[in-house]
Design a protein that fits this description.
By secondary structure, the chain is α+β, with helices and mostly antiparallel strands. Helices cover 39% and strands 20% of the residues. The protein has a single domain, classed as Nucleotidyltransferase, domain 5, CATH 3.30.420.100. Strands 3-2-1-4 form a four-stranded mixed beta sheet. It is globular and about 40 Å long. The relative contact order is 0.20.
């Protein structure tokens, strides 16, 4: 169960992204206790363009809940987005604080070639 503070932070983040998106797809992050997930979403069409997670069989790290796993997911999502021709995205931290695993995923996606 998520707290109301988290939901408010999430709504505030999504509102600001919607105001400044300018037609770019959104790189959304979800973090659970064991895994981290990333999706590139086209909000206009309502469809997922690319996805990656630490829960995938290929290239799975021994520990799926640490910063190294998040970096691996960031590299995967950048590679898959670039393969689809997506270079510029808007980063949606999803209400999570930009620190630790979320920051590691974002930095790895930038290093992989995504611009945000």
């Amino acid at each position: 169960m998520t707290s109301s503070l988290f939901r408010r932070r999430q709504a505030r983040t999504r509102y600001r992204i919607a105001q400044n998106a300018a037609g770019r797809p959104r790189l959304s992050v979800f973090r659970s206790g064991k895994h981290i997930y990333a999706q590139v979403i086209d909000d206009g069409k309502g469809e997922t363009l690319a996805a990656a997670s630490s829960n995938e069989k290929e290239g799975r790290a021994p520990k799926t809940y640490n910063v190294d796993a998040a970096k691996s997911v960031g590299r995967k999502i950048a590679e898959r987005a670039l393969a689809k021709g997506i270079r510029q995205v808007v980063f949606d931290r999803g209400g999570y604080i930009y620190h630790g695993r979320v920051k590691a995923l974002a930095d790895a996606a930038r290093e992989g070639g995504l611009e945000f």
